[in-house]
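Ticket reopened. Same input as before:
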Amino acid sequence: MRQDRTHWHAMLLTLLLAGFAGPARAADPALVAAAQKEGQVVWYTTQIINQLVRPMIAGFEKRYPGIKIDAVRANATDTAIKLLNEGKAGRAQADIFDGTSTVVPLKQAGLVMRYVPDSAKALPASYVDKEGYWAATNLYVNTPGYNTSLVPKGSEPRTLADLLDPKWRGHMAWGSTESSSAGPGFIGTLLADQGEDKAMAYLKRLAGQKLVNINLSAREILDQVISGEYPVALQIFNHHAVISAKKGAPVDWIPLEPATGVLSVVSVTKDAPHPNAAKLLMDFLIGKEGQAIYRDTDYLPADPAVPPTVPKLIPEIGKFRARFFTPEETAAGMPHWMKIFQELFR
Amino acid sequence: MRPARRGLVDGQTALVAALLALLLAVLVLPPLYLLLQGAVTDAAGALTTRNFATALGGRLFLDSLVNTVLFAAGSAALALVVGTVTAWIVERTNTPLKGLAYLTTVISLGTPYVLYVGAWLLLLGKAGPINQLWREWTGGFDPLINVYSLPGMILVEGLLWSPLVFLLIGASLRSFNPELEEAARMSGAGLWRTIRRITLGLSLPAMLALAMLVFIRAFEAFEVPALVGMPGRVYVLTTDIYQTMRSMPPDFGSASAFSVIMLAIVLVLLLFYGRLSRHAERFATVTGKGFRAKRLDIGWLRWPAAAILLVNFLVLLAVPIAMLVWASLLPFYQPLSRRALGLLTIANYRTVFAAEFLPLALNTVLVGLAAASAVILLTLFASWLSVRRAPGGWLAERLAMAPLVFPGIVLGVAVMQIFLRVPIPIYGTLWILIWAFIISYLPYGMRYSASGMLQIHRELEEVAAISGASPLTRLRRIVAPLLGPSLLAGWLFIFLLAARALSLPILLAGPRSQTMAVAMYDLWSNGQGTELAALGLLWTGLMTLIAVIFYMLTRRSAAGAAHN
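Engineering reply: fixed in the latest deploy. New output:
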């Protein structure tokens, strides 16, 4: 109830202040004041620090002076475990967290605040949780990537059938974590795309290719591709390949079908020590200013009004087939995908 | 002998023993209890055998077990050979270039494993210079050496542990009475015979103890199995536990069951070890008699010995550092090539200085200082009671050695569970890290103080006791000063160990209590490897400075102790 009233106040104040705040939609000044009083916000993130988190912190701290962000980066499972434990003890450390599907078990454990900022109104309906626990900040598209020095352009594997070529045997890497940007995500996408029987028949053949399991983030696996450890990696983030290629790295991504599409979503924790600053950061990430930072760092912004710098990274625009998963769908499928991964590829 | 032994034990000692045992029990038993309880109960708290069934029933359990044993044995053997040879050359002979061995050891002890393993992977990995040359030669993708294999893991782990062996064996060789070697030479024994019968013979208990220590630590190692083993699909027990803990929701039950299985194995090893060191008194070499440490003249063999030191220096230090320097100057890692030369930049160093790494450094130093000081103090008492066979000494030793059974990752989870349950609000602060580190490093403190203690003959204390000194006075005036070098070396070692530890703090560090190694792991797993190299080099430089200062202190007090 109280939340609704705050919400209503916010709308009214926003309307009143619109004339003074300039082009960017202003956040509720009461929220800003309360957040500035808290002075800090702890962000458990799965995003990459030097690509996105640092520019985002700089942007936020510049926009809202006096609020310091402490960002802690870990992979999705580690983040979820930390949050679960802190919640169990009633000693929440994090104010806000992001991930592709970790919000689901945390929501079930009652650790997530039902909060979506006004700025989420700009997002397509499917990018905001119907129950109101999360909203998307950006899109991830997982495809293969390859080292262009080791694999001359044109000779890279472009189809599922190409991946079975004996010349790639033992030379393809992917992540072994419980994630959509790792082996299990590839498996889940294939199951959804081709049906259980056909997908399993293919996966059994793929297992013969002796894929290299790497227990690191897809970003690090792509770096190993760039350094020449592996010529090809599966389930990397396609925008990471673009970011590295811009810096001069010998790397490119492959629009192999079916690609995996997931959302990176953000939520405020139920017992956030700094709830106002957390709400303000969530609003900033989803709002126009945050979305512009996603765009400028070559990520894929969730807001359709903020097109990415490289549009063809998006399946609809790049014209390659992808299967999309909501956080709930990923969380529901993951145990099964992980089981297949363990059985065939460990 | 009997009355004198009783004379060393009195009311004061009994009180110390009781307090110490209580303190150690509070530290060590809760995590053990949690693991045992976790292993036999399900999520709802009901008794179950399902956790063991899951752990043992996995079709690859036997594979992992065999891999673990081979890995640990291979690493222990390699570390022991490399470390002992180096230590003997440095401490007991007149070989030149000894400085290199100290430099290598001191720097390698200050280097986080993540960084070290990363550097060797750059060297030996598929993109390393060796395989790169091979690939250019053959034109294919297949590497010449596959470091992501069991032999690769043993090589890296064995090399990682050799500085520890060097340091510990060196400490016992340094306080070694050369008269014994001289007597052997004068009685007509050749150099090899002297080494074999006297030097090795007298060092045997220390070496066996060390072999066991390295074996157990490799048994529980995490960094190398994770970074080297898992990409090559070589799984060991710790990586199995890790995988179990990393699934969502974390399966604390199966992980506990795994841990209990490991605990049982290690317990057997420890019993075996206890049997070995029972007659340690026979090997006491620091007695009431004065001696001057004198080195053996090994003649022309000095030169091949110096070559060994040089190779050791290159492999353990120079080449990995060179690889890191190269990586730290690149925006993303590339093998050496003309194209890569065009990419060189100091951007990583700029980022490292600009980013908020100073609090991390402070956290790390604080945690190291606190943990090392507490461990040394506790284990000084524990080893004294244990070596002097005081009542409660056996218990204190067992308790202090018990944490050997904990893999870092499991102890991390156990300690976390404790502070999530008890209402002591240290979760997410530096205190929880310090608490966990103290538990984890008690066995190291024991090894340092007990191995030094074994060499101090009880006759020194017996004389003081007859002159009316109380047990605590004897500990303070006789034992502690004589142990000074061992204690300082132990303190230094634990400090450096805590400063670079990863698997323990990774689950315990809160948003504002991260340590350097955790930050480095984040950088590594986030694909900021070149930034990691820059940060790692700067951090290693700082740690080396600290290590050098303490090492010099150790050396001076060692010399002082010999003069007094």
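The CA atoms of residues 83 and 331 of chain A lie 16 Å apart. The longest strand of chain A covers residues 135-147. Please confirm and we'll close it.
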